Amino acid sequence: xxxxxxxxxxxxxxxxxxxxxxxxxxxxxxxxxxxxxxxxxxxxxxxxxxxxxxxxxxxxxxxxxxxxxxxxxxxxxxxxxxxxxxxxxxxxxxxxxxxxxxxxxxxxxxxxxxxxxxxxxxxxxxxxxxxxxxxxxxxxxxxxxxxxxxxxxxxxxxxxxxxxxxxxxxxxxxxxxxxxxxxxxxxxxxxxxxxxxxxxxxxxxxxxxxxxxxxxxxxxxxxxxxxxxxxxxxxxxxxxxxxxxxxxxxxxxxxxxxxxxxxxxxxxxxxxxxxxxxxxxxxxxxxxxxxxxxxxxxxxxxxxxxxxxxxxxxxxxxxxxxxxxxxxxxxxxxxxxxxxxxxxxxxxxxxxxxxxxxxxxxxxxxxxxxxxxxxxxxxxxxxxxxxxxxxxxxxxxxxxxxxxxxxxxxxxxxxxxxxxxxxxxxxxxxxxxxxxxxxxxxxxxxxxxxxxxxxxxxxxxxxxxxxxxxxxxxxxx
Length: 477
Ligand code: XIL
Known about the structure:
The chain is an alpha/beta fold and 477 residues long. Helix content is 35%, strand content 24%. Helix 7 (132-149) runs parallel beside helix 9 (183-194) and helix 11 (249-257) packs parallel to helix 12 (278-297).
């Protein structure tokens, strides 16, 4: 080989190596991009949405809205569109609270599930004490006014909420007592007339598996369809108890879609008897993954919504005393194992969930599974080469209580970008990041340590990370 040929040969080899590196970098950044958009982008890639409930009060909590905007693309007002808020007295309407939620959703590119029009709960007493002869016109007036107000702005309406008893009989509420079972068809027709573009749902709980109540809902939807009543979907609230996601859920969702309606998981939470152990959080991760897998398995399942953003916002502790920790985010808005399990169920990288879970969230007064009641110590070591570095970190719980999960916040040097991780999930990849335990190393007894690390690209600054904190408490170096 001549000198020139050898040089050309070498140049070609260098070019090929550079091309391979470029490909690898593209693949890595594509992977990061998939999870960098939160649950919503993973869900969208699968053709579904991922939603949350939000209340007016939630909108004033920056740590909460940061997670909401990063993770979710559908919003259900927690209370603001219910009858007691929207028409507290006969004919006098207040849409300001609901409007605020809709504005927030629109400003953040999220759609809205309208919730709800007719329900025996959160119903003002002027309705429940009406003489029977006046109930139909009150109901129709309420539906027409509210649906017209939000016309074109909501994706779907829960037209009738929770109409059934657990034994599959219809509740004998003021609507049933005045109009019989026909109130449901009447409500759907009235809503359709006011906004023909909104998807109209019936929504209920304890209908997720095959049982007497879901059989009754199925029979009702089949008969509404047969009569040509406008019904587009059934909402499965999915307020589960730990370890009790029904094994028949996918099959049950599927039989509803065979009637020609969409199905959606509308109010998902998974309550744990408190205090939650790390085994409980692992079971909860399995439960959340199962629900998402069930929805993905059914082509007519349009999306999954969690009821509230984090454990601090959940209705569970107030309604089911002794239970809590029911959502994917702890009370500091740090992702729990359930979050990673949902990322994985949606086809994302379990080791790189970009929670964007607001590392700046203030610690809650009550503490959380990730908040040390005491402190933390961090030891780390860095190995660098011209364009890269590896970093090993050991976190020690110097507090007095066992942590069930941990999320360590720290700041990377300028120009450093995490490309792979071990023993923790780290997100985002630059700047202030959060390292979260994986399913097997979340429990840290007092004095115990967990080691994890990452590889990063760097452009000259290969200093070790700084400003470590756990649950808002700075760690000792
Ligand atoms: C709950 C809200 O989250 C609470 O704030 C309120 O006090 C009671 O209602 N099924 C539903 C939701 O359809 O509207 C309920 O929301 C939870 C159960």
